[in-house]
Amino acid sequence: MNRVLIAGATGYLGGYIAKELQQRSQFFRTIVRNPDKLEKNGIKANEIFNAELTDFKSIKECCKGIDIVISTVGITKQKDGLTYMDVDYQVNMNLLKEAKKSGVKKFIYVSVLNGEKLQNLEICKAKELFVEQLKKSGIDYCIIRPNGFFSDMSEFFNMAKSGRMYLLGNGEFRANPIHGKDLAVVCVDAIDGLNKNIEVGGPEILTQNEIATIAFDVLGNKRKITYIPEWLRITILKIVKLFSTSKFYGPVEFFMTVMAMDMVAPKYGKHTLKEYFKELNNKNR
Questions:
Q1: Model-level pTM?
Q2: Which residue range is the domain that position 185 belongs to?
Q3: Residue 185's CATH number
Q4: Phi, psi at 31, each rounded to 5°
Q5: What is the pLDDT of residue 79?
Q6: Strand 47-50 vs strand 140-146: parallel, antiparallel, or unpaired?
């Protein structure tokens, strides 16, 4: 049986991957700074490697005795002065170096759909620079490219909860975001899979108008939508870039770019966005 290392087990997707491995009785080791977070999320790793991922020295030997590395490491909101290059690129490069040194057989990395086409965005640039290095590493690899998590869709839910939704264009851009539970199955299946590149989305392809309607209906709120034209989107991005730091601008740039295009990937899974919004609504009561 393969011995798996998960980097990012305390994050949204990493937590679901850990639980999927746990359910399959698969050996896995986690790299965490705070083991209490694993216990709080009901994750029982076979081994815990206590380290700070951004500290290269602290992760030495983290891959010793490991066959498969699964990394979901990345930041959506910059903190502690760290940049996308510090985390999405350099942390994964450090992991790759350790993987090569320890003779790891396969490295599975979770990037983003269309990342190779969106390298003008700082987050995608960092991720794709690592992808390039992974492909050259000599280690067997799999790049998984989801088109958005259900957790990202909470922004729509929160807008609907506030009483008004703001959508780009005419609200007809399409996407099929995927639940972490479904994506975790794809990631774990990739251990024995042969595909080098997997694009994946959820089971429903929805327009932004349809996502908005689902959110308003779940909340029982009247449908109120303001549409943001392309010229205004570009103007907002220019102003935000001019008057804010990269910590704030990076996530805004990514969100307002991917929401102004179709983000459709092959359909997979069973969890629906309506179910997820209902869960959020029940938690907020």
A1: 0.94
A2: 4-148+178-200
A3: 3.40.50.720
A4: -105, 115
A5: 60
A6: unpaired
pLDDT in tens, 3-43: 999 999 999 999 999 999 999 999 999 999 888 889 888 99
Q: What size, in residues, is the chain?
A: 285
Q: Is there a domain that residue 259 lies in?
A: no
**What is the structure's pLDDT at 49?**
96
Q: Are strands 68-71 and 106-110 parallel, antiparallel or unpaired?
A: parallel
**For 260-279, what is each residue's pLDDT tens digit?**
999 999 999 999 999 999 99
Residue 207 lies in a domain: no
Are 78 and 90 in contact by the 8 Å Cβ rule? The answer is no
Query: Residue 225 domain-assigned?
Result: no
Please check whether residue 255 lies inside any domain of the structure: no
- List the one residue out of 49, 53, 5, 10 whose CA is nearest residue 26: 5
SS (H, E, C) the chain: CCCEEEECCCCHHHHHHHHHHHHCCCCEEEEECCCHHHHHCCCCCCEEEECCCCCHHHHCCCCCCCCEEEECCCCCCCCCCCCHHHHHHHHHHHHHHHHHHCCCCEEEEECCCCHHHCCCCHHHHHHHHHHHHHHHCCCEEEEEEECCEHHHHHHHHHHHHHCCEEEECCCCCEECCECHHHHHHHHHHCCCCCCCEEEEECCCCEEHHHHHHHHHHHHCCCCCEEEECHHHHHHHHHHHHHHCCHHHHHHHHHHHHHCCCCECCCECCCCCHHHHHHHHHHHCC
* Total of domains in the chain: 1
Q: What is the pLDDT of residues 124-167, one digit of tens each?
A: 999 999 999 999 999 999 999 999 899 999 999 999 999 999 99
Count Cβ atoms within 10 A of the Cβ of residue 10 and give its class: 0-12 exposed, 13-18 middle, 19 or more buried: buried
Which of left, alpha, beta for 195 (phi over 0: left; psi -120 to 50: alpha)? beta
